[in-house]
Fold this sequence. Notes:
Blueprint lengths: L1 H24 L7 H19 L5 H32 L16
Helix pairs in contact: 1-3, 2-3
Protein name: PQ loop repeat protein
Keywords: Membrane, Transmembrane, Transmembrane helix
Amino acid sequence: MLAGTVSTVLFAAANLPMLVKAVRSHDLRSYSGSALVMGNVGNLVYTVYVVSLPFGPIWVLHAFYLVTMALMLVLYAASARARRITRTGGSRRPGPLTPGTPRK
């Protein structure tokens, strides 16, 4: 139990700087979207195994991985969308309240 707790803290601590940098910079160009999707699918499948185990450090570690991987995927999707909008010069359907839209 002690080894599981220590390893959980170490694995989580090792991933926190990556997550903090991604949240602060909103720059996820160095990440692979397909790897993030596959990682999230793998985590969901692995959840079936984890919930069959008695409660312990593995549950905490797996919950941490579920949350961080899902957050990274959401940030990646938002970053990709923002890059696409920037590249096309604006949103696809500017509405009347879009900043910079000339009023008629």
